[in-house]
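User: Let's play a game. I give you a shape written as tokens, and you guess the letters that built it. Ready? Here's round one.
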């Protein structure tokens, strides 16, 4: 009898242990609801930001990590890293497309589908924004490979989260976009929320990632981007990157107009470095960058020669072409990459400002920098000097105890001959032989 009771107790204990082992582990989080905000192009900085947010959520034992999202897309490599982070997250995650008017297109679609909870505000939309490659010849094989690869990824992510994988694939292949209401009906997202508090109210008591959420009454902590993340995220905005390129060009021209102006030289170097940091995170057409480089060379030639007006105006052609094509790659790109462009108004204003600055401001700086500090440009006109080299027609002269670049306006002048200054063009003096002046 005693033996039978012992066997029954042992069997009961084993059964209980098996039941406990087979049941999902319930973890009661003690931390807050952590909120991240991602707005703009997806790039390595947003990847770093999400990684930091997930790490903080684990450290604080957060109840839920919410990522508010508003993006046109971004770099495929950054998107894939973020998708993997969300799929492997050890805390429940929710991606919430907000505010009204926001979107989750291209790379945003992948990120939204990768979260444990996919939510949208009422007046938002989600889908693909497959860029249309420019150029006369398009590598269809490469384009199809990129599209198929992205379609396979989005389908696997949607299937992992038990969402509509068929629609997700069509969104990549056919450029489909839907509203929040349509996405909910198609099982692309899990719910629609008017705001963050409405989202947390709907999630309270729901089973998410093996955990029953308790979001009502929980503290909500917003973890913003730190200073470096915010700075690098800002410079990846296409208009900002373009402005930095233009600013670097103007500072470079200013430095060339007055080589002793070290502040302009340093500023140009910093502007170009920061601009290329931003361009490295955007779909850039490097042929357009080369066109902008040609425009800079023409601006410099116009600044340092007597054909400034003609050459400066000619520089507008490559400058405008480079500006318009800057973010329009000629090769096929991934469907995760958004269509980004510089505002035409910004291009027009920048081009006009570049011409005005080159023809008026820089030439004034150039003229002042090449004259003695105590005199104006007209003081040199009429002064005599000596040719230090043969002027045939360009060479070097000494006037007012200083060496100058000069050009003869009346034939060849041998070295050592006396000369007279008749005018100034750019950084060069116009001179003529003294004997010829006296003969008149």
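Assistant: Ready! My guess for every position:
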């Amino acid at each position: 009898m005693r033996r039978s009771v012992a066997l029954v107790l042992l069997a009961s204990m084993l059964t209980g242990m098996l039941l406990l082992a087979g049941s999902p582990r319930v973890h009661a989080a003690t931390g807050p609801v952590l909120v991240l905000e991602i707005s703009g192009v997806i790039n390595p900085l947003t990847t770093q930001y999400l990684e930091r947010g997930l790490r903080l959520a684990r450290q604080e034992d957060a109840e839920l990590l919410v990522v508010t999202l508003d993006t046109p897309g971004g770099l495929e490599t950054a998107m894939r890293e973020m998708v993997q982070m969300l799929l492997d997250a050890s805390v429940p995650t929710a991606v919430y497309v907000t505010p009204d008017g926001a979107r989750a297109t291209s790379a945003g679609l992948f990120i939204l589908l990768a979260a444990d909870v996919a939510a949208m505000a009422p007046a938002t939309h989600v889908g693909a924004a497959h860029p249309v490659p420019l150029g006369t010849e398009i590598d269809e094989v490469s384009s199809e490979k990129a599209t198929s690869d992205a379609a396979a990824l989005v389908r696997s992510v949607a299937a992992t989260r038990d969402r509509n994988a068929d629609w997700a694939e069509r969104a990549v292949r056919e450029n489909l976009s839907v509203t929040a209401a349509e996405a909910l009906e198609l099982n692309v997202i899990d719910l629609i929320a008017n705001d963050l508090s409405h989202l947390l109210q709907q999630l309270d008591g729901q089973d998410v990632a093996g955990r029953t959420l308790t979001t009502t009454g929980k503290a909500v902590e917003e973890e913003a981007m730190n200073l470096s993340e915010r700075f690098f995220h800002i410079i990846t905005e296409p208009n900002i990157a373009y402005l930095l390129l233009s600013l670097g060009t103007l500072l470079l021209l200013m430095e060339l107009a007055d080589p002793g102006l070290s502040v302009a030289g340093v500023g140009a170097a910093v502007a170009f470095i920061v601009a290329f940091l931003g361009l490295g995170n955007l779909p850039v057409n490097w042929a357009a960058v080369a066109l902008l480089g040609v425009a800079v060379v023409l601006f410099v030639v116009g600044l340092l020669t007597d054909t400034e007006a003609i050459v400066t105006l000619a520089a507008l052609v490559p400058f405008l072409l480079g500006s318009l094509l800057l973010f329009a790659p000629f090769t096929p790109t991934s469907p995760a990459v958004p269509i980004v462009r510089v505002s035409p108004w910004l291009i027009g204003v920048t081009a006009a400002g570049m011409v005005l600055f080159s023809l008026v401001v820089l030439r004034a700086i150039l003229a002042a920098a090449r004259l003695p500090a105590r005199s104006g440009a007209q003081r040199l006109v009429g002064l005599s000097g000596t040719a230090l080299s043969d002027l045939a027609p360009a060479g070097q002269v000494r006037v007012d105890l200083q060496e100058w670049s000069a050009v003869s306006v009346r034939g060849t002048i041998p070295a050592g001959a006396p000369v007279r200054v008749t005018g100034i063009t750019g950084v060069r003096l116009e001179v003529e032989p003294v004997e010829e002046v006296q003969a008149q």
